[in-house]
Amino acid sequence: MENKTTPITFHGIKEIEEKKLVGFRVVCNDMAGYGEKIPKASMLLEQRKGEIKHLVEPVKLIGAFMAAESTEDEDGYWVCFEVNDFEDLPEGMVSLIVPKQKYAVLNFKGHASEIFHVYSHLHNWIDENGYQRKPNKWTLEIYNSWSGKEDNVDLCDPVY
Asked: Where is the AraC effector-binding domain (predicted)?
């Protein structure tokens, strides 16, 4: 289903297999800090992706975070690429395993700065279709193309 006012498409419910991720973890005190630091971390990761072994799809940048209050180890936003296996983690990078999970998925085409507002459309769709969000599980943002200007991203919110 297309939304007429925002470039979004709902893809319904999908089960996404476990993902092994390698990249940078960004931790900030406020949302404004994330808006500044995530694009910088994404650009640095793109420049250094040649250092990451066993890349699955080197064009698909993946963001991961938990919407609910989380432990200190889970706090923040991970900017990553998916790998088949962890080997020789590049200096300054971290690894994360996101378990297999059921997600409500919405595709958004537009500037990354607008993504925060698009989540309300996804959350409304979840409620209207009888699902419940799992904010204590990993939310994924899977970028099919990332330019810093206009993005094509699947927003994947965990549900049950």
From this structure: 9-160
